[in-house]
Amino acid sequence: MGNLIRISEPASLALHAAALLARQTDGRIANQEIAAALQVSGHHLAKVMQQLVRAGIVQSTRGPHGGFTLALAPEDITLLQLFEAVEGPLGDAECLLRQQVCDGADCLVGELVHAVHSHVRQYLADTTLARLAKRFTLVSL
Questions:
Q1: What is the pLDDT of residue 18?
Q2: Residue 99 CB partners (closer than 8 Å, separation 6+)
Q3: What is the pTM of this model?
Q4: Which of these, 5, 3, 31, lies nearest to 17 by C-alpha position?
Q5: What integer is the mean pLDDT of 27-56?
Q6: Hey, what domains does the chain have and what are their CATH numbers?
């Protein structure tokens, strides 16, 4: 069951980085600081952060004292906004096979796929970054 729902690495980075920014109360956080905290490539993270900037969720400042801050209050950012900023619109539930082999009317697992998809969409739409950030704690290695 652990692999039932997959969230891409870029989407996961967006969610985690935004949670770090939501907890930051004084100033900006540099890309390298976020990358170190999340134990990921700074180059890969920078690409994700720029997508969040283009979506208007994050602000970026260049220079020696530069970094990232949230452009909106954490209470005004949903997980769905973060996800879609990186992945594009969350589409409809699809067949689990590469190519659909049935007419879909009585799909073997269609009811489950649609229910899970609907639940995930609703969760992402209803959960704010503020709520996520409250319970977000990095694991020390």
A1: 96
A2: none
A3: 0.85
A4: 31
A5: 95
A6: 9-89+128-134 (1.10.10.10)
User: pLDDT-derived band of residue 139, with 50, 70 and 90 as boundaries?
Assistant: low
User: What percent of the chain clears pLDDT 90, i.e. is strictly above it?
Assistant: 61
CA distance 74 to 112: 32
* Tokens encoding 59: 């602000």
